């Protein structure tokens, strides 16, 4: 058994240096959990202000995690926070950010063209050993990977919001993903404290394929006036045991992200009624009410 174990761990490349591209809701969380678990992290954003914003969000979240981990030991909590923070370096320079990277996790805007532009650039500047992953919610990993020359070192690593709390990681293989890359992704997912499930490169993978139509249907119920948003949320929390109601959850995920998911799926699968985007969400986006991250969505947040 021992020999088997060491063989399988020798097979998977060990991921130590991680580059996270995009320091928004998801990228900040991914950078945080990687740093918390001893990885060196470079967090890339488009400007210095956004790096600062990400760092301050990470600091807040780290202190919530530390409070839980080291309830009766404030000194150990401080040490955990300081050490985790010291492992995260901010950068606005892609080439510099990937020069020693074992793994790049992309968490930028949910738009295929923008992701293509980034990955083309990354493929040109990253060392051959560097593996690439996208945290996309809904796009095809194969289509994202198509602009690179390293499809064997490409896959999906789909985290959930809030990353420091949600225990799941979906590991997505495309046909070209090598066994070594897949093993390395699974081992890294475990190393950052997540339970990994594997899924083929299908729209929404497992969770979003079920969750996104459910949330859209709840919004349609609200749009028809069948029940108030508060009552829909209360009903699903108390009647179905969900931690958050669907309307609350849509604000939490961000309307720009969830709307672009449905627009993309509707374009690809025009006959599927589950994928029709919500008018009221479009209206919120036009009013720049993207949900919790902008302070207002269907609900107001102070
Ligand atoms: N960082 C660190 N810790 C956090 C945190 C964060 N950002 N947010 C919450 N926590 C911690 C809190 O400190 C708290 O810890 P204790 O239990 O020790 O007190 C714990 O999580 C619970 O938080 P709260 O008491 O503030 O609130 P809650 O009980 O309502 O839980 C929640 C908050 C974990 C977000 C919960 O409401 C929940 O699970 N909601 C559903 C989230 C969900 O469905 N996410 C998936 C979205 S879909 C997605 O991500 C995929 C996609 O591609 C779109
Ligand atoms: P977000 O808007 O909070 O963050 C995206 C960040 O990427 C922004 O801060 C932006 O400045 C930055 N960015 C954009 N282009 C960049 C570039 N070229 N280089 C560096 N940074 C760049 O979005 P998010 O909610 O964190 O979503 C990011 C990705 O994760 C999307 O693909 C989304 O579908 C996916 N996702 C989102 C959720 C969710 O619940 N919001 C959950 C899982 C996966």
UniProtKB/TrEMBL annotation:
What the entry lists under PROSITE patterns is as follows: 3HCDH
Domain (3-hydroxyacyl-CoA dehydrogenase C-terminal) ranges: 204-301
Q: What class of enzyme is it?
A: oxidoreductase
This protein is called: 3-hydroxyacyl-CoA dehydrogenase
The answer to whether the entry has keyword Mitochondrion is yes
UniProt catalytic activity: a (3S)-3-hydroxyacyl-CoA + NAD(+) = a 3-oxoacyl-CoA + NADH + H(+)
Its chief place of residence is: mitochondrion
Listed EC numbers: 1.1.1.35
Task: Domain (3-hydroxyacyl-CoA dehydrogenase NAD binding): give its ranges.
Answer: 17-202
According to its UniProt entry, the protein's GO biological process terms are:
fatty acid beta-oxidation
Q: Which residues bind CoA?
A: 61, 68, 137
